[in-house]
Amino acid sequence: xxxxxxxxxxxxxRRALTIxxxxxxxxxxxxxxxxxxxxxxxxxxxxxxxxxxxxxDMDGIDVIAGLRGWSTVPIIVLSARDSQAQKVRALDAGAxxxxxxxxxMDELVARVRAALRxxxxxxxxxxxxxxxxxxxxxxxxxxxxxxxxxxKLTPTEWHLVEALVRHPGILVAGSQLLxxxxxxxxxxxxxxxxxxxxxxxxxxxADPSRPRHFVTEPGLGYRFEP
Length: 226
Ligand code: CA
Hints:
A hairpin with a 2-residue loop joins strand 8 and strand 9. The radius of gyration is 18 Å and the shape is globular. It has helices at residues 11-23, 34-43, 60-68, 84-93, 105-119, 155-165, 174-181, 190-204, and strands at residues 3-7, 27-31, 48-52, 75-79, 97-100, 129-131, 135-138, 143-146, 149-151, 171-173, 214-217, 221-224. By secondary structure, it is of the alpha/beta class. The chain contains 8 helices and 12 strands. Calcium ion binds next to loops.
């Protein structure tokens, strides 16, 4: 059974999330504050985290940053704050997706399912290894190394990287990447790509400000150059 850590300080919403997700056969660990969330995640690593941005003891962004220090678990953010800046900050801190309050339970469940599916890319025993002068990607083992040192990519980052490196030198449209990695409803969320490619470049490119491998074609999409 997949374990979901739900971090929400509003008791009624926490209860509704718990009941609805349990009804869909997930194991749910509900907590009401950020410190409790970090403790619960460390004690028993969850398969997915849903975190409210407005918590009584700390900002939800700090919970994301705390988790990202050691975990690539999928994270979905809940927020009443529908500002673009907040959304970008949460994605930048390492969240995988974003749901704005008030939301329908079916929408949240769909996002949870999609995030778990992205994280559950089958691991093959052998597979292609992509080598560039700056980094190496073992697609089967989900291992990235740069100068011989392992670099941790989140499941969403892997999914994007894989979508590009499968077609070296070929332009892949932004809308196609969004649909493939986030789902058909996300074709216009170009912000997601901007934020994620910035993270991927920071992790893999020798000079993230002048990317040689993950290249943006302005207004069109992205291209991987080996
Ligand atoms: Ca709250």
